[in-house]
Amino acid sequence: MADIDLSPTDRAILEMLREGRATPAYIAAETDYSRQHVRNRLQRLTEHGYVTRLHKGLYELADDPEQG
User: Fold this and answer.
1) 10/6 Cα distance (integer angstroms)
2) Residues 6+ apart with CB under 8 A from 10
3) Which conformational region is residue 33 in: left (phi greater than 0), alpha (psi within -120 to 50 degrees), or beta?
4) Element containing residue 46 per DSSP (H, E)
């Protein structure tokens, strides 16, 4: 799948996942984005292989698109 243009939300999510695993609720609370918006962006990042869904509601960074 082709690379995507990263939104500010995507960048915030990736920054948090660089620190370790996180849930959409935690990311939303820490970034002031809505939980639904974070979930939508996590789904998109997962589709592109940048994030892995480990378990319902738990995500980790798989392939950082900003690390070239």
Assistant:
1) 6
2) 4, 41, 44, 45
3) beta
4) helix 35-47
- What integer pLDDT is reported at residue 4 of this predicted model? 79
The pTM score is 0.89
Q: Delineate the domains of the chain, giving CATH numbers in brackets.
A: 8-55 (1.10.10)
* CA atoms of 26 and 49, how far apart (whole Å): 21
Q: Is the pLDDT of residue 44 over 70?
A: yes
pLDDT band with cut points at 50, 70 and 90 for residue 30: very high
Q: What kind and span of H or E run contains 61? A: strand 58-61
Q: What are phi and psi of 59, to 5 degrees?
A: -130, 155
Q: Are 49 and 62 in contact (CB under 8 A)?
A: yes
